[in-house]
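Standup notes, structure subgroup. Blocker cleared on the adenosine-5'-diphosphate input:
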Amino acid sequence: ADAWRLICMARVFAVANQKGGVAKTTSVASLGAALSELGCRVLLVDLDPQACLTFSLGLDPDAIELSVHDVLLGRLSPGLVLRGTEDGPDLLPATIELAGCEAVLLSRTGREHALRLALAEIGDSYDFVLIDCPPSLGILTINGLTAADEVIIPLQCETLSHRGVGQLLDTVHDVQRLTNADLRVRGVLPTLFDARTAHGRAVLVDISARYVVTVLQPPIARSVRFAEAPGSGRSILTTARRSRGAEAYRSHARALVEAESAAGAPQGARSRPG
Ligand code: ADP
Ligand code: MG
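Run returned:
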């Protein structure tokens, strides 16, 4: 039943948008938990010096000794830094030290490839790796995009939220040209969506007209349940198991698994999970 696990390397997704507050971290935590529920082996990478993902999965960033920062600087192998989480996925945690990492990386040869090389060491232990990028287009996000097979762009459905998308897509094109020719844009993930207003829907139509990107369905509705989750150290997949938000992320997780199974099918190396 788990023959699709014969794939040797994990499928790596960067979740990126230089705008803050668009649900990057929430999407990484929720998709990760949903993929775990499906029986996938999942690694989450916190690339944000704010360490919100690390905190929201129940770890105290101030009490963590070894973090992704040591991995990016080549001091530690990722296996030594990994932590398990209650939600199921493993995590490469961040601490505020990651803020200083940017400057050190910038002076190094091969600085864009630090995360890609680290993941190459452990990628065969996972089916999926999800990278939570910081709200900038700096060297950390470039590391995320360079390490990824695909990028998912969470987008808050409100006026002018599209304005950053063009700039992010330019960065994706630079990465494709310079460090990762195989990087694909999986699509825009509509978040904080309010279906009651025509406005939210209009933003989605506008995005698909403006850019050549897929708008991933279903949108993630705005819900107070999301705000409650991070304090508990668990994602909405457990804090509000049956909520529409949890179900929406489950449906995106199933789509990722199905795409992986379909992609591998011709070689006979993968079959459907289940
Ligand atoms: P980012 O990582 O892009 O900065 P976060 O994932 O931290 O964004 O989300 C920003 C805020 O929005 C957080 O307080 C989070 O709990 C909240 N949030 C995320 N998704 C939703 C949603 N669907 N409905 C309501 N609040 C949400
Ligand atoms: Mg975040």
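Discussed briefly. Residues 20-26, 52, 135, 191-192, 220, 222-223, 226-227, 230, 245 surround adenosine-5'-diphosphate (ligand 1) (CB under 6 Å).
Next: hand off to the docking folks.
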